[in-house]
Amino acid sequence: MPRPNRVDPWGDLHSSAERGLFTGNRGCLVDDDRAIVRHHRGSLWIVCRTEFRGWRHPLDAPHRWTPLFFLDDAVALAAGHRPCALCRRDDYLAYRSAVTAALGRTTPVPAAELNRRLSGERLHRGRGLHRAGDRILWKSPFHELPMGTVVIGPHDGSPHLVTAGGLQPFGFRGWGDPIRSPAGPVDVLTPPTSVIALAGGFTPVLHASAVTPPA
After folding, report:
1. 24, 66, 91, 190: which has the fewest Cβ within 10 Å?
2. 77-103 in b/e burial notation, b at 16+ Cβ within 10 A?
3. Are the CB atoms for 29 and 83 separated by under 8 Å?
4. DSSP 85
5. Could you report the average pLDDT of every consecutive run of 10 residues in the chain (215 residues)?
6. pTM
7. Residue among 15, 10, 18 nearest 40 (CA)
8. 164: number of Cβ within 10 Å
9. What are the domain boundaries of the chain?
């Protein structure tokens, strides 16, 4: 049976044979017996390339970061991660530049500040083992949300991707068939800082199942 290291847009961990486009981490999640025993450790939550410089990293080594897997950038951002500044340097710089510009800063927002912002936007305080209800949701008019944002579907309460074709429901194998976009406000799962980045020029890498605008 696959290890429970596949991440859904809520940030929860599941067992799935589908690995997705990216890996990443949120600290060491295993105990000395290599069993996953925690949802996260620390505020550094990043999304990484699955291959970089030929490096190899164990899936379940104690006292080292634990690899997680994401369908695509939209899932990783919704779960509360940001691009890695090492293996995804250009994406990280684009993400940081977009947030910096939106905040009206003259100097780049430090990585530590990005981490603090995302940490405060992900989970309600005092939560150890994450549940979907622990996530912080926020409301926005649907028409103001950029493509790549994940929102809560108006009919079934599940995560849906904002795309050029409408809302697409999440699945570990890909995004499902589009449904009509809502007219009013929606509950947003992607943290505000990452929505700012998406709106300001960060281009997410989306799974092939996502409906994208024509070139």
Report:
1. 91
2. bbbbbbbbeebbeebbebbbbbbbebe
3. no
4. T
5. 89 90 94 89 94 82 90 98 97 98 95 96 66 81 96 92 94 94 93 97 96 78
6. 0.93
7. 10
8. 11
9. 6-133+191-199
**Of the candidates 209, 47, 74, 72, which has an alpha carbon nearest to the alpha carbon of residue 148?**
74
d(CA 186, CA 58): 39
- How far, in Å, CA of 148 to CA of 159, rounded? 12
Q: How many Å apart are CA 167 and CA 182, to the nearest integer?
A: 9
Residue range 174-213, pLDDT digits in tens: 999 999 888 889 999 999 999 999 999 999 999 999 988 7
Name the residue among 211, 126, 136 with its Cα closest to residue 168: 211
Q: Which two tokens stand for residue 70?
A: 């994401």
* Secondary-structure breakdown of the chain: helix, strand, coil percentages, each rounded to the nearest 5: 20, 20, 60
CA nearest neighbour of 75 among 24, 124, 140, 115: 24
**DSSP label of 77:** H
Q: How far apart are CA 90 and CA 75, in angstroms?
A: 19
Largest CA distance in the chain: 50
* Phi, psi at 134, each rounded to 5°: -80, -15
Calculate ∠ Cα 165-90-142, nearest 5°.
30
22-25 and 46-49 beta bridge pairing: antiparallel
Instruction: Report helix, strand or coil for 140.
Output: strand
Express each pLDDT in 27-46 by its tens digit: 999 899 888 889 899 999 99
